[in-house]
Amino acid sequence: MVTAIGPGRVNLIGEHTDTTGGLVLPLAIGLATTVSGERGGNVVHLTSAELAEPAVVPLDVTDPATMAPGWARYVAGVVAELRPAHGFRGTVSTTLPIGAGLSSSAALEVAVALALGFEGSTLELARLTQRAEVRASGVPCGIMDQLASAAGVAGHALLIDCHSLEVTPVALPPAVEVRVVHSGQERELAGSAYAERRAAVEAAEAVLGPLRLVTDPEDVDRLDDAVLRRRARHVVTENARPGLRGRAGCRRPGGGRRGHGRQPRLPARRLRGVDPGARRVGRPAGRHARRPRRAAHGCRLRRVRRGAHRARRTRRGMAGHRRRRRPRRGLTVRRLHLAG
Fold this sequence. Notes:
Blueprint: E1 2-13, E2 23-39, E3 43-48, E4 51-58, H1 72-82, E5 88-94, H2 104-115, H3 122-137, H4 144-151, E6 156-161, E7 166-171, E8 176-182, H5 194-208, H6 226-239, H7 268-271, H8 274-282, E9 299-305, E10 322-325, E11 332-335
Parallel strand pairs: 3-5
Antiparallel strand pairs: 1-2, 1-11, 2-5, 2-6, 3-4, 6-7, 8-9, 8-10
């Protein structure tokens, strides 16, 4: 019996910057996906109590994006990239909410790759599962999700330079906890504007050069197109956030007061009640609180001082969607030998 675990992740700083070689600060969390079963046969057959239809993937799969049901595409992406010598029959279970922006697909890919016998470094695993995600979803995603899942360190966030792929664990103070609040809107890369955003950033880089090297946000004004300016400015200012360039040894090119920085354009209708509630929850922490970090859909983050407040319900039906998270270590794989 083989059991492999891939954790989900939350991202503290650095949104939509990994595809440009920027800086990100994610952490692996205790919510995870587990794959258990036996190796053998000529297909990968996985069932899940959370999902009605099984994933049945032949070892010679060539087009993962055509597999059904939808979650089988991610399994097929791993099979197509890994090309294991044997199949697998087992089960998938998860404590990760699907479509909440906690990288449930990356967690599944990491767990499946390990269950199928992947042997290599965490970086090699992250690269393989990133390619699997691209083949499964058709979205040119970055490497942050898979690398955060594979390389997580307990009690630490990971400062990742997505150009050099250098990973530096950053210890979080024991008095700090990260709160994850579900916005109520599902997130899925496939069918989203992710590819359009990446194309806009690449068009901006054709004029400005690599955005990871731009240290003055005013340089973005050289772009004539308003959409390109907005996309490029987002990347430049994200890379300039305290805790990223500061730890990477680069100067910070400006920025506003804490808690009053630029926010990306997001669907405000779904986020009503989340921001005010998060600010209200964090208020007793004073200077130890930080403005919530937005994801385009799914979950939002709030870093607060541990024990400084009691959990409160946010408005508009958000009760029950707040979770406390401490960083955990990344991937786990173990082989169980049963007596008899």
